[in-house]
Amino acid sequence: MRLPVPGEIEEAPADDRGDDRLEGLMNRAGITQRELGEYLGCTQQFLSKVATGKRKWPQGMRERAEAYLKEKTGAKDRSAAAPTTESSAG
Q: What is the dihedral of CA 61, 33, 74, 24, to 10 degrees?
């Protein structure tokens, strides 16, 4: 087992990296890492490191991110499904 080097970034465990589900939600919602970071109070760079497994999610932040994206995805789905009314002059 290798000891960590001071200043080295601790790699996240396998279950916290490659967050394809979260990335999929971001794509569906049309939300960028920057926008999600603004909502969560962190930087786009931090979210990039989390997505690649270089950093760990702080406690509760992943859940907040998922809830926000699900809300945005649901709102987008509802607006896309809303009936449109066309009035014809006649």
A: -100
pLDDT at 1 over 60: no
Domain at 49, CATH number: 1.10.260.40
Q: What is the pLDDT of residues 17-54, one digit of tens each?
A: 456 788 888 999 999 999 999 999 999 999 999 988 89
Number of domains in the chain: 1
Which residues make Cβ contacts (< 8 Å) with residue 61, sequence separation at least 6?
Answer: 40, 42
**Is 40 among the domain residues?**
yes
Query: Domain range for residue 61?
Result: 14-74
Burial 1-25 (b: 16+ CB within 10 A, else e): eeeeeeeeeeebeeeeeebeebeeb
> Helices 33-40 & 61-81, crossing angle to 10 degrees?
120
Task: Read off the pLDDT of each residue in 74-89 and give the average, rounded to a whole number.
Answer: 63
